[in-house]
Amino acid sequence: MFGEVAVAPIRRLLARGLAVLVAVSALTLAGPGTPPAEAAAACSGRLVKSVPFPTGELRIYKSRQYACAVAVAVRPGPRRAMSVSVQPRGGRAAVDKGRFVRQAGPVTVHALNRCVRASGLVGGRGASTGWILC
Fold this sequence. Notes:
This protein is an alpha+beta fold. It has 2 helices and 8 strands, in the order H-H-E-E-E-E-E-E-E-E. The radius of gyration is 23 Å and the shape is elongated.
């Protein structure tokens, strides 16, 4: 009988300790200072241009053979109209448009030794680049 009384508080203590450990590890992995848009890298390559506009930001990435673009909302929230496009010179534009919470894209085009232009729109406001990466 004495053993059963001592085991119950130990089990409760272990359960609470496990819950705290899980919560701390979840915060450590997610990182409290990591913005939601930066949590998952949408495009491979390096960021070559970032064009801010009032409701978001257009980001263009470049790897050796490809150019990629993403339109990211400044304040993720309810679904709203977003679009992003990237076009290589002499080629067809790749477009992603719809109603999104956080970002439109990524859209990728083959752009080895080619100029590209990109545009992004979040909630009716947007930005575009001229021909870049020439």
